[in-house]
Known about the structure:
Layout: E1 4-7, E2 11-15, H1 25-29, H2 49-57, E3 64-68
Antiparallel strand pairs: 1-2, 2-3
Iron/sulfur cluster (SF4) binds next to helix 1.
Amino acid sequence: MTTKEYTNGDVTIIWQPEKCQHAAECVKNLPQVFHPKEKPWIQSQNASSAEIVETVGKCPSGALTIKSKS
Length: 70
Ligand code: SF4
């Protein structure tokens, strides 16, 4: 399974494209981070770690998860 990682230096977002259902919950909740038409499409430096963790938790497919630094 493919995994891609995007870090803001604190938390790391892990995205599994095969699981993504393109429900766009992430885009609705945190549009400054999730840019479906750009590369890289996740720009994790644009939000706080708390905002990222909250939005990742709303992903309905489980395609997004968090890897903490510690
Ligand atoms: S919320 Fe999850 S399933 Fe929906 S587009 Fe974002 S990563 Fe994909």
